[in-house]
Amino acid sequence: MPTRLLKPGGTARGAEPSQIYQQMADALPHMLWTALPDGTLEYVNARILSYTGIPAKELLAGRWKPVYHPEEFELCVRRWRRALASGRSFEAEYRLRRADGEYRWHAHSVLALRDANGQIVKWFGTCTDIDDLKKAAQRLERARRALEAMVMARGDLVDAGKSSPFDQLSEREQQVLQLIVDGRTSAEVGERLGLSPKSIDTYRSRLMAKLGIEDLPTLVKFAIRHGLTTIG
Asked: Percent of the chain having pLDDT more than 70?
């Protein structure tokens, strides 16, 4: 059973080590408990009592089930039994019921204390409230997924409405290209657009460079495929 607390306002002078230890444990912002090697609970700190609202007598008698969320109680029991059987420490996350009925996420850490011969002499357990952090992480994850969905949707819209390679050309460049692939000579295109044949040759070279095309037949096929001309 828990040892008697030091009186409020008192000092540690002359106090037993167990009293000092208990006072320190009760001052922690974390829940702290200890158990015997066989798993029998022997101590719970003040934080556990204030959080759960359950008397120490009931908790020390093993009446922990109301504290755990129904979805996780059996998992908690199985992990504790495995730890007792294997002697291994473990960490886990569970929701614990507060005195007002709210369940909050806590990080559990269970540690086996051993003597010089390696024998377990005591189990220590702590429970730290991580509910706000966990909910913040969940909100961040939801925001990340929403952002990914928006990016993917945007990508689909871009793909669905993807413009023709010719959209990167100016209006005059498209006019020159259309006349060229329709079979007009540089002189004919120049006369039609009021440009010199030399200017048309320069336009053609620039257009083929922009589109990554090296010869006129390929340029004509490319234009037909993208609907710039009806020839073919």
From this structure: 75
The Cα 10–Cα 1 span in angstroms is: 22
* Dist. CA 48–CA 190, nearest whole Å: 91
Sign of CA dihedral 185, 191, 192, 195: positive
Q: 201: which 2 tokens?
A: 């040759």
99 CB-near residues (< 8 Å, 6+ apart)? 50, 51, 52, 53
pLDDT in tens, 105-133: 999 999 999 999 999 999 999 999 999 99
- Distance CA(84)–CA(77), nearest Å, equals 11
Amino acid letter, residue 37: P
Phi-psi sector, 39: left (phi>0), alpha (psi -120 to 50), beta: left
Q: Mean pLDDT for the chain?
A: 79
Sequence-distant (6+) residues with CB within 8 A of 17 are none
Residue 128, pLDDT score: 93
Distance CA 17, CA 127 (A): 24
Work out the angle between the directed axes of helices 216-225 and 171-181 (0-180°, nearest 10).
110
Q: What is the pLDDT of residues 15-34, one digit of tens each?
A: 455 665 666 766 667 899 99
Mean per-residue pLDDT for 3-11? 34
